[in-house]
Amino acid sequence: MTRFPWSAMVSAVAVLVLGVAAPAPAAADSSASPCPDADLAVVLVHDLASTPDVWSDLRADLTGAGLCTVPVTWGEPAGTDVPIPLAGLRGVDAGARDLADALDELCRQRSRCTVDVVAHGAGSLVTQRYLQDHGTDRVRSLTTLGAMWHGTEIAGLATAEQISRDLGTYDAALTLEKPLVDPLCAGCREIIAGSNLLRDLHARGVPTPGIDYTDIVSRCDGLVVPPESGASATSAVVALPGTDSSPCVHHWALPHDRNARDAVLAALPGSGM
């Protein structure tokens, strides 16, 4: 049987993602602001190969606007011999379960609990999977930064994956190689355009009716290629840089960028902007 070197392909994207991700601390940020009124809560869902500390600048903005923040850690690695100081590696389905647990904790003992979610990169897929698996009762809006609705075509990996499918070797190779790749970075496999996860996500519906979506995309994202693939059939799309000719911003810098953060604040229903 002709086998496509699928594990090599995913290893390549793992190197790209882990190698260019912003440096992260060894411990996740656990200093979420208390939210006596859950309707003023903004739940923050980080990217693949990241941690909640990526939200430090935006959290200051949100606090200044009278909102409280709930950063969620999802997809922490499990079953690896080498400690990895990053989360978002165990894949989208695991991340959706982590998000569900966080919302259960936030909404415990509240008769009414509706939050806004801000998600970066693959965190958008995690939130979408949460909506599909757990419903829309607790989420009012989803604002994304560099959403990976259609995955990444970086380094031609999606084209290579499609060749494997066309050759009929994809499923067999995946069965053999998944146990080797997933313990390190299941999410790296899932963000490749055309992956099984993305196909299933769209088959079940993107966007989800009843949720207000805003996608903030960068024309030089670098990971979401082309940048237009960072937008779905949403209520609003904000493209950076704007008309002020501000510097273009890379995917990993989006949560820190002043214009991107202003766009998030403008999109949130409770920010007063």
How are the SSEs ordered, and which strands pair?
Layout lengths: L5 H15 L20 E5 L10 H9 L3 E5 L19 H16 L7 E6 L2 H12 L4 E7 L11 H11 L2 H21 L5 H8 L8 E7 L17 E5 L17 H10 L6
Parallel strand pairs: 1-2, 1-3, 3-4, 4-5, 5-6
Helix pairs in contact: 1-5, 1-6, 3-4
Note down, in words, how this protein is organized:
This protein is α/β, with parallel strands linked by helices. The chain is built from 8 helices and 6 strands; from the N terminus they run αβαβαβαβαααββα. The chain has helices at residues 6-20, 56-64, 92-107, 123-134, 157-167, 170-190, 196-203, 258-267, and strands spanning 41-45, 68-72, 115-120, 139-145, 212-218, 236-240. α1 (6-20) runs antiparallel to α5 and α1 runs parallel beside α6. The radius of gyration is 18 Å and the shape is globular. The termini are far apart. The relative contact order is 0.17. The model is unreliable at 1-33 (pLDDT under 50).
Given the structure, what is the number of helices? 8
N-to-C order of helices and strands: HEHEHEHEHHHEEH
- Would you report the number of β strands? 6
Strand count, sense and barrel status of the largest sheet are: 6 strands, parallel
**What is the arithmetic mean of pLDDT?**
78
Compute the CA-based radius of gyration: 18 Å
Compute the separation of the termini in Å: 59 Å
Widest beta sheet: strand line-up: 2-1-3-4-5-6
Q: In one word, what is the shape?
A: globular
Strand content: 5-15%
- Helix content range: 25-40%
Unreliable segments of 5+ consecutive residues: 1-33
Structural class: alpha/beta
